[in-house]
Amino acid sequence: MDSVWVVLVPSLSPKTAPIFEIDPVGEVLIVVPPPSSDSGQPATLYHHDGIRIKVSAKHLCMASPVFKAKLSHFHPSTATQPDGRIHLRLATGLDPKAVYLVFSALHPGLPTRRLPKQLDSIETLAQVAVVVDRLGLLDSVEVYAERWINRLWKGAVGKYSSDWALWVYVASVFGREDIFEAASRKVIEEHSGGANFEELFSSLDLPLHIDVIRTLETRHIKLLTNAVNVVNTLMNQLMLVDSNCLCGTSLLGTLVTALSKTGLLKFHTHEGSQKHFNTSYADFSAAIQESTAKFGSWRPIVPTSVKTNPLGINGINGKLPTPASSPHWEHGDTGFDFPEHTCVVDELIGKLMPVFAR
Q: Domain of life here (predicted)?
């Protein structure tokens, strides 16, 4: 999709759109359409009619082959508007604030340009990345972007999956492999409701390249496969447990149920990338953690008999069962109400939980 058009008729931007002068004597007027009504952008400095920016043709041609091609294709006498400038209209979907920041970075040394030492949010940085990506301006903006990225990354909280998705996009545009590794892992771990990463970034209006999407999908399948293999290995070990308590049997049933609910009971590595693409690692991890949480502070005990008590426990709830009585399990907020004890499940569950710990 073309991101820049040369305006050959009177400017498509309303005369009410404010003009910003990065280069007051610049030969080009950049016309930035207003954000769409559902973009969520505030109508403060950046007018609801969009903005216009006076810039230097020389700096544009030096910064981007996109602008060089546009400006060299038309003779000035053909494209010049009544104000004596060539008007370039940008594609919709570019944030006016981000456009102003990026074009200011293209004009080093001009007293009229104003570049902040740091940006206010990852959202603003992501919009800057969109402008840089679509207009091919990486080389000209990279120095400033590095400073903005480093300062924001130090305070990155990323409480929500969308925050990490923004960082994935920023890292992919500016080639920050270190940030991409950390942020993509978080996106994979926290994005629930399916594993369609293309849909996730589309919902955020981020044009993430398809090769990056495929990288995320591959890493997701690898992480999910490793996690399922750990659970399957644990289940195989539980089948071999010889114990006088019901812990192993109960845990085994719990894991089978969790795998079944997430559609991964018959998961196989070689077909995982196709058959289970829509099962997210986040959903699987949540199911395992929720279903095994009750194995932390309680242990169900098998009531053997009055005469045999190999675990040394005084029966159920402190009462020895009689031959005539029917043992019963009382359910509470934390699961079965039985005395705590140590068994082989402690060791096995210890191998499982670190896999899903974040």
A: Eukaryota
User: From the CA atom positions of the chain, what is the Rg in Å?
Assistant: 30
**Do residues 33 and 95 lie in contact, with contact meaning Cβ atoms separated by under 8 Å?**
no
Cβ-based neighbour number of residue 209 at 10 Å:
13
Q: Measured between alpha carbons, how far is 301 from 28 in angstroms, rounded to an integer?
A: 81
Cα angle value 110/116/117 (rounded, 5°): 110
| Predicted confidence (pLDDT) per residue in 263-319, tens digit | 777 665 444 444 555 778 888 888 888 777 766 543 444 443 333 333 333 333 434
Backbone angles phi, psi at 80, to 5 degrees: -70, 135
Rounded to 5 degrees, φ, ψ at 21 are -110, 95
Q: pTM, whole model, 2 decimals?
A: 0.76
Report pLDDT digits (tens) over 145-169: 999 999 999 888 666 667 899 999 9
Q: For residue 358, give every residue at least 6 positions away whose Cβ sits within 8 Å of its Cβ, in sequence order, or none.
A: 189, 190
